[in-house]
């Protein structure tokens, strides 16, 4: 056990990791352990009657006991054996008590030394930590100040750049606004000069007449919108109106050339020989809606009403001879067969587009046979 303790103590000394004050305490403890081991060995090896108490002054090796008598002298008496054994026990007790007292003193010394060293270590560690904290905080504060200064300088530079750019843009906008305002003033000046010139040179009646014509046109447009005539019917009626006007112009030329004035002449063109034959052939046909019709031929696009039966749907709708029927529904009719086919397709209600050459009025009539 002591050999192992000494070996570990040697390894600890060679490692150099143990503090000096702890090394001193361990040295004392190992020395006491070695002395105790030697004392035990002496007690085991020496007889009790010849044993002597070890010297405590030098803490050295215990002196060897007197040699035992030879085996041949067995007849020598030992009168002092009980007193010697008692003295050895008392000496051992005193030695053990002294050893325990020394151990307590060593323990107190070690505790005091350790507490002192610990207080010194605490003070030094606190001082070092405070210095480290101050150093780290000061370094962090200095670094933060430098970074903030760099950021402030960069922000000021960027703000100066943005302000310069904004100033240039405002200057450009101001110049463009000034130019636009100058152009507006010139235009307003020209407008006023033109207005004064027109008021001085042109009579107000011209403006009033133009406004009246505009109002009249607006009223006519409203009337046309109220009639709600489909576009295809308007186109057909326009074409029919042009053809009728052309026929009327031809008839007027013929009348002026012949020099005959007849107030009762019809605006419907007279039929030729072929048309007369067609009319004669149509006399025997049925009269749809009470109308007798004939083809307009090349002169008129549509069917010309030649006769209207009394009390018929056509007479009730105020269709008279000479009127021209151009459409039945949305279909253009130029022959009687077309009219009959369109009437059959319409079914119950027939929608007729009728033109009156005398009044130049186009009507859209719905007849239910």
TrEMBL record:
Q: Where is the PDZ domain?
A: 284-358
Organism field: Trypanosoma cruzi
Protein name listed in UniProt:
PDZ domain-containing protein
Q: Where is this region: Disordered?
A: 264-288
Q: Name one Pfam family in it.
A: PDZ
Sorted alphabetically, which Gene3D superfamilies does this protein's record hold?
Answer: 2.30.42.10
Q: Which domain of life is it from?
A: Eukaryota
């Amino acid at each position: 056990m002591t050999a192992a303790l000494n070996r570990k103590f040697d390894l600890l000394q060679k490692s150099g990791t143990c503090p000096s004050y702890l090394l001193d305490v361990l040295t004392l403890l190992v020395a006491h352990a070695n002395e105790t081991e030697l004392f035990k060995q002496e007690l085991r090896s020496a007889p009790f009657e010849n044993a002597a108490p070890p010297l405590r002054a030098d803490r050295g090796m215990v002196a060897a006991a007197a040699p035992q008598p030879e085996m041949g002298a067995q007849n020598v008496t030992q009168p002092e054996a009980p007193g010697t054994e008692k003295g050895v026990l008392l000496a051992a007790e005193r030695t053990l008590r002294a050893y325990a007292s020394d151990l307590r003193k060593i323990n107190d010394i070690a505790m005091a030394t350790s507490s002192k060293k610990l207080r010194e270590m605490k003070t030094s560690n606190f001082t070092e930590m405070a210095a480290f904290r101050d150093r780290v905080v000061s370094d962090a504060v200095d670094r933060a100040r430098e970074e903030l200064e760099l950021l402030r300088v960069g922000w000021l530079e960027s703000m100066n750049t943005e302000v310069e750019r904004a100033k240039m843009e405002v200057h450009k906008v101001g110049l463009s606004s000034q130019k636009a305002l100058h152009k507006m003033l010139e235009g307003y000046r020209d407008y006023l000069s033109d207005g004064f010139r027109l008021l001085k040179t042109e009579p107000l009646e011209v403006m009033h007449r133009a406004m009246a014509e505009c109002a009249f046109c607006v009223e006519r447009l409203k009337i046309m919108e109220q009639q709600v005539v489909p576009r295809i019917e308007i186109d057909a009626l326009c074409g029919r109106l042009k053809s009728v006007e052309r026929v009327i112009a031809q008839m007027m030329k013929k009348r002026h050339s012949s020099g005959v004035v007849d107030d009762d002449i019809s605006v419907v063109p007279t039929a030729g020989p072929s048309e007369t034959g067609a009319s004669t052939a149509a006399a025997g046909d049925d009269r749809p809606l009470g109308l007798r019709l004939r083809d307009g031929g090349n002169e008129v696009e549509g069917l010309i009403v030649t006769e209207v039966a009394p009390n018929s749907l056509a007479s009730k709708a105020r269709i008279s001879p000479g009127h021209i029927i151009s459409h039945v529904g949305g279909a253009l009719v130029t022959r009687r067969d077309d009219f009959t086919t369109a009437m059959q397709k319409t079914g119950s209600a027939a929608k007729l587009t009728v033109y009156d050459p005398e009044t130049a009025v186009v009507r859209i009539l719905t007849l239910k046979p």
